[in-house]
Amino acid sequence: MSEILMLSDVRLSFPNLIEAQKNQTNDGKFRLSYNAEFIMPPDHKGFEQFMARVGELAADKWKDHAQSVLKIISQDRKLRCYGKGEEKVNQKTFQVYSGYEGGVYITAGCTTISDSQDAMAKRPQMIQADGSPVDPMNTMAYQQVARKLYGGCRVNAAVKPWAQENKHGRGIRCDLVAIQFLRDDEAFGEGSVDVSEFFGAVKTDAAPKSEETGVMPPFLS
């Protein structure tokens, strides 16, 4: 099985793709990350391939202990990048987030660890409608495409799961390699609220002139 997997026609959620998220680690370095979640039905072909790849990674990394390690990982959402939609609960309303119920999800991202929060963070590839990638060094073009990706829209995504084994512990993580807008769908969240009834027309009188000079008065210093 290829290291990179395709998630075709999945819903995008919690996208952080325009600007990198910046967090300072315990050792004073900065963690810069572009990330997103992808929601799909449990029988989605991409998810089935993803879970099969997780099993391969675990067997390769932890050998005879693979099943025991995966059991521990499955019991702690912080140790894995995938799960059932019902796990995604709003901590304020205690309701499952819109779009997650009955589905499964994969969280993927690009992370850069640097001594500076202004460092150039690694970005996932943005794929245009014609299949060509946007130059990641062209920030304006990259962000223009990224702004089209909203929570709830349909996308295609290339991801790469990997097994974590380091000082931070064991886990299953996933890199976001590339993403492509597929089509519109109902946006997550409440959407825009129409408050136009509270406003009236703005009077557009010309600004007053100074009686002495006939010129515009200066701004107050």
Tell me briefly what this model is:
The protein has 221 residues and is α+β, with helices and mostly antiparallel strands. Helix content is 16%, strand content 34%. Strands 3-4-2-1-6-7-5 form a seven-stranded mixed sheet.
Kindly describe this structure:
- The protein is of the alpha+beta class and 221 residues long.
- The protein has a single domain (5-192), classed as Beta Barrel (OB fold (Dihydrolipoamide Acetyltransferase, E2P)).
- Helices cover 16% and strands 34% of the residues.
- It contains three helices and seven strands.
- It has helices spanning 45-62, 66-74, 139-146, and strands at 5-24, 30-40, 82-84, 104-114, 125-127, 154-166, 169-183.
- A seven-stranded mixed sheet has the order 3-4-2-1-6-7-5.
- It is globular, with a radius of gyration of 24 Å.
- Residues 190-194 and 210-221 have low confidence and may be disordered.
Q: Under CATH, the topology is which?
A: OB fold (Dihydrolipoamide Acetyltransferase, E2P)
Number of strands: 7
Mean pLDDT: 89
- The Cα radius of gyration reads 24 Å
β-sheet strand percentage: 25-35%
CATH homology group: Nucleic acid-binding proteins
When the domains are counted, the total is: 1
What is the element string, with H for helices and E for strands? EEHHEEEHEE
Shape: globular
Count of helical stretches: 3
Flag low-confidence runs: 190-194, 210-221
The major beta sheet can be summarized as: 7 strands, mixed
Distance between the termini: 69 Å
Q: Which architecture does the CATH hierarchy give at level 2?
A: Beta Barrel
- Name the helicity range: 10-25%
Under CATH at level 1, the class stands as Mainly Beta
Structural class comes to alpha+beta
Adjacency order of strands in the biggest sheet:
3-4-2-1-6-7-5
